[in-house]
Amino acid sequence: MKAVGLYQYLPIENEQSLLDVIIDKPEAPQGHDLLVEIKAISVNPVDTKIRAPKEQTETAPRVLGWDAAGEVVATGPDVEHYKVGDRVYYAGDITRAGSNSEFQLVDERIVGKMPSSLDFAQAAALPLTSITAWEALFDRMGISAEGLDAGKSLLIIGAAGGVGSIATQLAKQIAKLNVIATASRPDTVDWVKTMGADQVINHRNAIDEELKAINTPQVDYILCLNATDQHWSAMANAIAPQGHICSIVETEQPVNLGLLKSKSASFSWEFMFTRAMFQTADMIEQQTLLNKVADGIDLGILQGTMKEVLMPISAENLRKIHAFLESGHAIGKVVLAGWD
Is the Cα torsion angle 103, 109, 115, 116 positive or negative in sign? Predict the structure, then answer.
């Protein structure tokens, strides 16, 4: 089958960094696995981080990709929730082969039914970011998904990217929070307002000072999607007593948790691959939340976050998207659809 893979970890400008390859089609699915025919994929920062230059080589092509939409073509004997012909979307498992291939095996417990109102490309923009945002808001920070925390304040740092785009909507439309988003360019400011942000501040400046300027010196929750190290002190200043901070961005050096002590504030990480990586007992929660997001899309409560689609799925187009993400100017999600 066709796929895009790598043998070496190289700068994206190098044409050998991602290659069109032919690999074996996966065997018949076992256990809870589905065999999915991939129709569209999306790219996330995790793809670029794993592909980034390092002293390592692969004897067989390594296939990346952790966002996909497609159709179930076979099911394992333990599958309970899907059948052949179902349209699905998912982010997959970082410990297994990725979605940049014509067919992929994926555990049904981390797969959702695709929104019926979206096409494959639009659906492929959503899984990884939706899982990340949902888990960060409702699992890690404990915000009520039933609106019981309505009116509380949430700061989203780096809100114009893929995770921020859906997190803004979940926080506003599902949790009924007051959402303050950060963005630094006119186009990103416009985008986060479209996603539902109540107010917008500039993360190029000190976040705590920006909040004071809009008469909101402290917020109940902070979701950090950009430069945890850079914003740590400002976040510690801005978080309300007994508030919660969650980040998805690894630090370059240890952060001073002591800054949160007097406020009894908490900090947590969100890594959406945790459940699949460790086969946690609640793995199926990812299926559940993806189905809730799909329902929200179909009911018009939530909107898609795809900004652009390229065709076909190829090494050349994937290199373009990796380079775009590495530029730091991405808004929403860029998707690839179809195979030559």
Answer: positive
Sort strands 333-337 and 33-42 into parallel, antiparallel or unpaired: antiparallel
pLDDT, tens digit, 9 for 90 and up, residues 104-113: 999 999 999 9
Structural domain harbouring 255: 130-269
> Percentage of residues in the chain with pLDDT exceeding 70?
100
**Beta-carbon contacts of residue 256 (< 8 Å; ≥ 6 apart):** 232, 236
Distances (CA, A) of 236 to 20, 142, 163, 267: 46, 19, 22, 10
Is the preceding omega at residue 312 within 30 degrees of 0, hence cis?
yes
Q: Are 67 and 125 in contact (CB under 8 A)?
A: yes
Q: Provide CB contacts within 8 A for 145, sequence distance 6+.
A: 137, 138, 174, 175
CA 12 remoteness from chain centre? 21
The angle at the Cα of 174, spanning 266 to 197, to the nearest 5 degrees, equals 80
Place of tokens 């893979």: 5
Domain match, 72 and 194 both = no
Per-residue pLDDT, averaged over 280-298, amounts to 98
Are the beta carbons of 143 and 162 closer than 8 angstroms?
no
Of the candidates 144, 148, 111, the one whose C-alpha atom is nearest the C-alpha of residue 130 is 111
Q: Under a CB-based contact definition with an 8 Å cutoff, are residues 68 and 40 in contact?
A: yes
Work out the pLDDT band at 84, boundaries 50, 70, 90.
very high
Which of helix, strand or coil describes residue 109?
A: helix
| Domain C-terminal end among 209, 239, 269 | 269
Tell me how many domains the chain contains. Answer: 2
Question: Do 265 and 278 lie in a common domain?
Answer: no
**Residue 328 confidence (pLDDT):** 86
Contact partners, residue 26, CB within 8 Å, separation at least 6: 35, 97, 103, 104, 105
Model pTM above 0.90: yes
Return the H-helix or E-strand segment holding 222. strand 219-224
Residue 215 — left, alpha, or beta (φ > 0 → left; ψ -120 to 50 → alpha)? Answer: left
